[in-house]
Every structure is written in structure tokens, then in C-alpha cells.
């Protein structure tokens, strides 16, 4: 029964994450990246607070933060604040299919950063995985013009790649986190929200021109990209005895997302995006192949 429950939770998370690239583009049609970050963070914090309340963990928030305030401030400034601000800006500058595919290379970035900061040994297959995934990023970013190295949006590609550094760094820092995962996630949002609100006031963008569709889209992003879906995924990993099988389901997400982007918002999917994504996913598969007993930090999402 637990395995069936874990599978259901994981599939729900994968399907929800498959929709967020489309939701990002719909939201960015009306909100700036900073507005999007601010509202999505507020929306995300609400269900996380409710979940903590139902689990009797709200009382842990203040003691957990006071025990290591600098650490939790750093986590919150990285995720959601800096990570999503860079990611949303990358989505604003690039086709969603490209930004999403490049973002999937974060797991490869994690391997390199784990070797640098945690002293883990990089295996030969990890180097092969890195080569395959970053070649895929290059194919996507240049739309196949590898020799000319011409990018549609150099800044967009740079921001998407920087977001992978932030996301990998966040999970490396989380290896030292002894708090309950949901409590830690909620603390990150509580740290980030005042900063995001300050940035939105400094930006001076109008909130009055946002339609109900814009509010609905940003609420969807907050609920199903930045909030509830993490809880579903973490619950699935906690419930299963076969973590590898559950984790491998995430490989379906980017391909489902491409279908949704093409059908819902009519985005043209460049053939090189699919080719590059295949290279990236191939790299991730190679990385997960068990040729050695070395363990790696647990990945919580794509």
C-alpha cells in the first residue's frame, strides 16, 4: 500500500511540475519577474503554513530559526528569492522550452559542486554525464549553431545556468539542515517574502493592471511550483522503499511540459530543443547508473 501511495504522490508531483513552464509564461505576460516572485512566494507560504499547522509543527518555526538564524536567512535568500528571480527572468527572455530544458541541468551542476564543497569524488561516468548534459545545453542555447555560438538571448541563457548553480548550492546547504523539510521550506519563504516585497516596491511596477487571469496564473505557480508539489515529492520519497524508481519518474516531466507548451500557449518547439533535452536527460540517466557505491546528496526535484 505504501508503494502505491508513493507512486501516486510522485506521479501527481511530476504532472504538476510539467505544467509550470506553461504557467510561468502565462504569468509573465502580465507580471514582472519581481511581481511574480513576490505573489508566488506569498501564495506558497500559505499552504505550507497550513500543512505545518495540521502536522503540529508550527511551534517549531521560531526555535528552529533562532537556533541558526544566519543559516536560514541564507537558505531563504537563495531559495526562493535569488533562484526564482533569476529563473523567472530567464523565462521572460527565452522561450519556455529552452529555459526549462537548461534548468534541468542543475543535477549535473550539483555533482560538480558536491565534489568542490563536500569533497565527493567525481566518477568517470559523472564526467560523461556532465559532457552529455552541457553539450545538450549548448545545442539548445545555440539552436544547433554550434560553430557560430550565436545565442538568441545570451543574458537569458546565463541567468538559466546561474539558476542551476543557486539550486544546486541550496541543496548542498540543505545537507546540513536538521530541521523538518516542510518547516525549513516555510522558513525560507518567510525570510524571502519581505525582501521580495521590498524589491517590488523599488521596481514600482503597477499591480492595478493585472487581470484575474494573471492573478490565477501566479497563484497556480505559487501553489504547484514553489509550494505543495515539494511536499508531495518529499512525501513520495519518504513513503517508498524504491527511491530510484520514484526518482526516475521525473524524467518524463520535461517532455510532458513541451507538449503542454505547444498545445496550450502555442509555443513553437525548436527541434534542437528536443535534441538538446535528450542529451541532458541522457546525462542524468548516466549519472544515476549504479557503477559505484558512492552516495550523493538526495535530489528533491528537477
TrEMBL record:
Keywords: Membrane, Transmembrane, Transmembrane helix. Pfam families: EamA. The keyword Membrane applies. It comes from the Bacteria. InterPro entries: AA-Vitamin_Transporters (IPR050638), EamA_dom (IPR000620), EmrE-like (IPR037185). Residues 6-141, 155-286 form the EamA domain. Its main location: membrane. Coiled coil: none annotated. It is a multi-pass membrane protein. GO terms for cellular component: membrane. It is found in: Membrane. The chain crosses the membrane at residues 33-54, 66-86, 101-119, 126-147, 153-173, 182-202, 214-234, 246-266, 272-291. Belongs to the EamA transporter family. PANTHER family: EAMA DOMAIN-CONTAINING PROTEIN, INNER MEMBRANE TRANSPORTER. This is DMT family transporter. It comes from Vibrio metschnikovii.
Amino acid at each position: 500500500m505504501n508503494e502505491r501511495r508513493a507512486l501516486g504522490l510522485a506521479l501527481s508531483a511530476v504532472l504538476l511540475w510539467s505544467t509550470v513552464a506553461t504557467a510561468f509564461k502565462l504569468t509573465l505576460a502580465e507580471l514582472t519577474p519581481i511581481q511574480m516572485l513576490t505573489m508566488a512566494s506569498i501564495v506558497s507560504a500559505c499552504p505550507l503554513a497550513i500543512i505545518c499547522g495540521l502536522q503540529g509543527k508550527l511551534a517549531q518555526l521560531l526555535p528552529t530559526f533562532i537556533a541558526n538564524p544566519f543559516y536560514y536567512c541564507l537558505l531563504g535568500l537563495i531559495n526562493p528569492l535569488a533562484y526564482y528571480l533569476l529563473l523567472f527572468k530567464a523565462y521572460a527572455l527565452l522561450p519556455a522550452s529552452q529555459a526549462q530544458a537548461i534548468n534541468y541541468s542543475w543535477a549535473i551542476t550539483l555533482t560538480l559542486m558536491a565534489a568542490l564543497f563536500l569533497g565527493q569524488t567525481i566518477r568517470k561516468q559523472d564526467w560523461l554525464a556532465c559532457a552529455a548534459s552541457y553539450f545538450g545545453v549548448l545545442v539548445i542555447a545555440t539552436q544547433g549553431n554550434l560553430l557560430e555560438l550565436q545565442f538568441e538571448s545570451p543574458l537569458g541563457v546565463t541567468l538559466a545556468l546561474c539558476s542551476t548553480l543557486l539550486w544546486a548550492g541550496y541543496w548542498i546547504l540543505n545537507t546540513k539542515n536538521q530541521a523538518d523539510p516542510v518547516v525549513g521550506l516555510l522558513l525560507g519563504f518567510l525570510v524571502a517574502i519581505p525582501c521580495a516585497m521590498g524589491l517590488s516596491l523599488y521596481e514600482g511596477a503597477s499591480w492595478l493592471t493585472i487581470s484575474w487571469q494573471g492573478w490565477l496564473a501566479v497563484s497556480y505557480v505559487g501553489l504547484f511550483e514553489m509550494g505543495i508539489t515539494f511536499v508531495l515529492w518529499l512525501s513520495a520519497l519518504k513513503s517508498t522503499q524504491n527511491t530510484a524508481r520514484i526518482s526516475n519518474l521525473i524524467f518524463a516531466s520535461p517532455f510532458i511540459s513541451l507538449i503542454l507548451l505547444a498545445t496550450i500557449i502555442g509555443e513553437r518547439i525548436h527541434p534542437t530543443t528536443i535534441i538538446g533535452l535528450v542529451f541532458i536527460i541522457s546525462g542524468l540517466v548516466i549519472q544515476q547508473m549504479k557503477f559505484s557505491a558512492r552516495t550523493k546528496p538526495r535530489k528533491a526535484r528537477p
